[in-house]
Design brief:
One of its GO terms (cellular component) is T cell receptor complex. This protein is an all-beta fold. About 0% of the residues lie in helices and about 65% in strands. It is built from no helices and ten strands. Strands 2-1-10-9-4-5 form a six-stranded antiparallel beta sheet, with no helix packed on it. A four-stranded antiparallel beta sheet has the order 3-8-7-6, with no helix packed on it. Strand 9 and strand 10 form a beta hairpin. It is globular and about 35 Å long.
Length: about 130
C-alpha cells in the first residue's frame, strides 16, 4: 500500500523594504515515491535562491542554495536555476514520508537587494 503525500503550497512574497506582501495557497496530493517539483519565482533577475524545509512539529532546516545556472544536489534534493534568472525549482526525485513539511524559498535579488520569502508544504495524509 502506497502512502499519499499531501502537498500544501503557499507562495508568500515579502518585500521588507517596500512593505508589500501577497500569499497564494494551494494543495497537492502525491503518492509516496513520486517525483515532486516546487517552483520559486522572483520578480527580479540575478536572484539568489535559498531552500528550507520545516517538517511537522519540527524547526526550520536549511536544505541548499543556488546562485547560478549550474544545478545543485544535496542529500537527494536537486535545485535548478532556470535560464530566466527569476525562477528556481527544487526537485524531490522520490518523495518519502519524511519529506513531509513546508518548503520555503528565500530569494535575494541582487538588483534591488530586496528579500522575498516563498513556501510550499508537503505533508502526509492517509490514503
Amino acid at each position: 500500500e502506497r502512502t499519499v503525500l499531501n502537498i500544501i503550497y503557499m507562495i508568500n512574497w515579502l518585500f521588507i523594504c517596500y512593505c508589500k506582501s501577497w500569499i497564494d495557497t494551494g494543495m497537492l496530493l502525491k503518492p509516496e515515491r513520486d517525483r515532486v517539483t516546487i517552483t520559486c519565482k522572483s520578480n527580479d533577475a540575478y536572484s539568489y535562491f535559498h531552500w528550507y524545509r520545516q517538517g511537522p512539529r519540527m524547526p526550520l532546516s536549511y536544505l541548499l542554495s543556488i546562485t547560478s545556472s549550474q544545478n545543485v544536489t544535496k542529500e537527494g534534493l536537486t535545485a535548478e536555476y532556470l535560464d530566466t534568472s527569476q525562477r528556481s525549482r527544487l526537485h524531490l526525485p522520490s518523495s518519502l514520508l519524511q519529506d513531509s513539511g513546508t518548503y520555503f524559498c528565500g530569494v535575494i535579488a541582487q538588483q534591488f537587494r530586496k528579500s522575498e520569502t516563498h513556501n510550499q508544504s508537503l505533508t502526509d495524509s492517509e490514503a
